[in-house]
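Q: For a teaching session next week I want to show students how multiple molecules come together into a single three-dimensional assembly. I've collected the sequence lines for a complex. Could you give me the predicted structure tokens for the whole thing so I can convert them for display?
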Amino acid sequence: MSQVRVRFAPSPTGFFHIGSARTALFNWLYAKHTGGVFVLRIEDTDQARNTDEYLELIYQSLSWLGLKWDEGPKVGGNYGPYLQSQRAGIYKEYLEKLKATGRTYEKDGAIYFKLLGERHEVYDEHRKKTVTKVKNAPAVIDDQIRGRVERVEDEDFVIVRSDGNPVFHFVNVVDDITMNITHVIRGEDHLSNTSKHVELFKAFGAPVPSYAHIPLILKQVGPGKMSKRDQGALIEDYKKRGYIPEAIVNFLCLLGWNPGDNREKMPIEDIIKLFDLPGINQSNARFDDKKLAHMNLAYLLELPQDSFLSLATTILTRANATDALLANPDYFKAVMLLSQPKIKSAEELPKYTAYFFTEDYIHVPEVKAKVMTKGDPKARLTELIEVLSQSDFTNDIAMEESIKALAAKNNLGFGDYQAVARYAVSGTNVGPSLTAMFRILGRDKVLNRMQKTLDS
RNA sequence: GCCCUCAUCGUCUAGCGGCUAGGACAGCGGAUUCUCAAUUCGUUAACCGGGGUUCGAUUCCCCGUGGGGGCACCA
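A: Of course. Below is the structure for the complete assembly, covering every listed component.
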């Protein structure tokens, strides 16, 4: 059997979104699973809507997700060029082939593909005009996911616009032929188009590729499929928010596919091993950002220190605390590693760690109202300052012991001191372990902040 | 309107004629704990409806209903 060749063929007409990412992913997985070739082809025939910015975003997003293409722009290959805008010669050549067999005609300056069969006029309700229908045999699609699908293509269709540019259906098929594509894995929104494509393959005398139409991702709220405008749709956003690409990939695999057992979080190598086209679901899946967030957290907790630190640096730098960050790398590292197991997503980092980098941190009024009114908070702060000024700030266990001793002496619990201390030092009631926080902040900051709270 | 397609907890799904219908996320309750998370234990919750086929249907068939997609000189 010849080598599997699949392609992902996006058009640079908008942001790269979750649905495109999953289509790319499934193609990539199938190539990896079969030892085949993953081709990236850019369908930029819509000159009015293409932009270089979107093109670049395709490359960046695929790379970020770890979906390396074996052939395509930037990496080359034997079937190029891989931008449709550079393949005009090939399309012309193939158009001639069709013309030579009498399968085209011109109308209103455009070139149509001519179906074989009897013709008759019919009024089309939908388009409010009379159209010519062709009595044609159904095209049979042997879909790896949906089984046998039949659809009659009963109208001639445009393959070259009056401005001379070939349209999607035509270039898509010509490229699949000339690039030796064996399997077409794409969204179900193309299922109805497939009959056109099958007609073209047959007209060219080319073998029809194996099809696999994957279900669509539906928007989280409201009707319809996910689009670029929907909340949570853009890959770019997840990158900005510090999501972990492996988590997104893992999540996307589970949207319409499963390993056959109850595993969910699993290494990509295992997924590659088990992935196959017939195992893909037939029904659409609704996007769920909560589950994605959960998957991201699972990956975040296991992220190696150096990876986490570089992620944290990216996030924090963007959040403008740059000077304070660069001032002391060891301090930065300590703060971030203290926070890693506590946050749900890297995007929380700037807010979560703000008080480590400035004296001008926010004191949450609600927390103040809650914490600084119970018992005698000022007395407790005074006691804490007394005890802590004798403490070894490199030893958080010892600090904890001395605060516990202080609490016990006054018939109180550690928690009674913890709350006021935390508020004084961080302005809030959430954060990492109290004395570990002390250790990293250091004696001066801790005592000063407590004193300042006392004086206010 | 026409064509294609899909249908199990709120969501993602397992199930491929006989199961106490399983798991995960979310939710709820408990444990743990210095807060918040994490962790852990428990728990609520589903076979769209109607006909068949069959000894027996979540599972097979048909019809409804509902969802999704397509019907361009967009891709």
